[in-house]
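@channel anyone free to eyeball this complex?
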Amino acid sequence: MKNRSLSFWLFMTPTLVALGLVVFVPFIYGFVYSFTDWNGLQANSFLGFENYIRLFQEEHFLNAIWFTIKFAVVSIVLVNVIGLGLALLVTQKLKTSNLFRTVFFMPNLIGGLILGFIWQFIFVSAFNSAGQLLGLEFLQGWLSDATTGFWGLVILNAWQYGGYIMIIYIAYLEAVPQELMEASEIDGANPFQRFWKVTFPLVAPAFTISMFLTLSNAFKMYDQNLALTGGGPFKSTEMIAMDIYNTAFSDYDMAFAQAKAVIFFILVAAVALTQVYYNKKREVDL
Amino acid sequence: MKAKKRNRILLLILGLILMLLWLSPFYLMFVNAFKTKNDIFTNILGFPTEWTFDNFIQAFIDLDFANSLFNSILISLLSVGIIIIFSSMAGYALARNTSKLSAFLFMIFVAAMLIPFQSVMIPLVSIFGQVEMLNRWGLIFMYLGFGSSLSIFLYHGAMTGISKSLDEAATIDGANKWQLFWKIIFPMLKPISVTVMILNLIWIWNDYLLPSLVLSANEATIPLKMFFFFGQYTKQWHLALAGLTIAIIPVIIIYFIAQKHIIKGVSDGAVKVIPRNK
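replying in thread with the prediction:
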């Protein structure tokens, strides 16, 4: 018995130590320091909730939260529509299905930073050029204000992430029993009815997963934000992750940034848990 | 029957249009990387009037590409290697031990997935800075910490498919836990190891934020170097795009060689993140 628990700890120690030192110690350390005037090295006085009161009065932080929520909501709808649409297309047993999957998924292998730079070129230069060519005014001046910055991020995210979510929907679409589809066809259901009444309920679990992923992905987005707009113009497109980074490493306001980081954790955890709980409730089982 | 065939052709055309749409950002990056500065200014959408390789040569030098590629490979491979070794061990131990403590530890690893990086980032840098571990070895250790949760979760799930009688048979034959794991269990975990490898590799290879906080300039990985490079060449798109092209070519080549494994790995991983209802 003694020997058994020894081997258990031998197997557990490396990951436990790493997780502890990298995630839990900093998490607790950060939580405690968010109530002080910590400057990154030392804390001189305990401030209570002062940092937290201040952050809810900081208009810029509230804007970043609002911008992130708007982005998350629009992204969930768009990415899931695109993901499911692409998945339906590539599961039609076309000869080119594999090629399509490969191409649609490709952006996910390239980091958000590099994708952001590529799209910066497209929005700023290629859009401008196409706009002049086609005489379309709305294609000009992209990323120069908060609105086009917002839609730029949405488009980049949909292009990148649609193929990822597609993969998840494919896994569930391929598990839909063929007999069910045939039976409903014999019963006279048209393709549209078959999709809404048979396929859609059966891929609902995929929606749970993809909604969870899209949401947490949207909330934690940093690289794309940094590379595409840099938060500009005038911080109008800064999302929460970038705001925390800038508060800490540009303004060197460490304790204040850490208080924002604690709020960020509560927000992400609450959203993720609520979302999984509600989606789990309305899924159907085979 | 005729209608079905027509639908199939329409779907094929739709697919091809979408594929071109998906590839268009890469097309724009690629053709403009071959243009001169003036050519980009007047002709963004078309092919170069004159193809030039000079951009690539200068970008290759300024990106210090050989060095940053080496750093990226070293850090990614070592990190993924230790994640696979240590997470498979922990996943095995947690799955085979049915005590309350074991269940609690598993829960701790899963709970850690809810903590966003930004929530621990500032103290992490502060703590590791105080013990002078803001370097590539510290970074690899951090990747083990951040990567272990999902990896252990996946290994733990895969263990339920491996019969306990195997453990018993090997133990009767005189194997200790260490031998049992590495000789019998670990080889059977190969499919999930491939998934764990792919998921962690994509993440670590492309990670920008953590290396930017931890690494010094001569240890810079490709994304980190790209950030500095891009800042240097703002508005000089011919060089910037050549640099971006160089950076993504290795990934694209590997993707087209191993696309089936990669898509399957991502699919298995993503679908298992939240276990199905039964």
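from a first look: The mean pLDDT of chain B is 91.
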